[in-house]
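Risk register update: the risk of archive-format incompatibility is retired. Evidence:
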Amino acid sequence: MNQPEENTPEAESRFHHYISNKIPWYVHLMWVLFWIFVVSYVLTNFLPALKMEMVNPP
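Archived output:
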């Protein structure tokens, strides 16, 4: 069985530069729309129901 080479990343100097991908504009738009939906849901449905449950538990 062959042994792996004992090179350091500095000596090898390749495959160690990571570049990220740019996120498309429509993915940002989907996140913004998602958070707008979450905030509107919490304000219109969740908080009133929570207040009712705190005052009159079943």
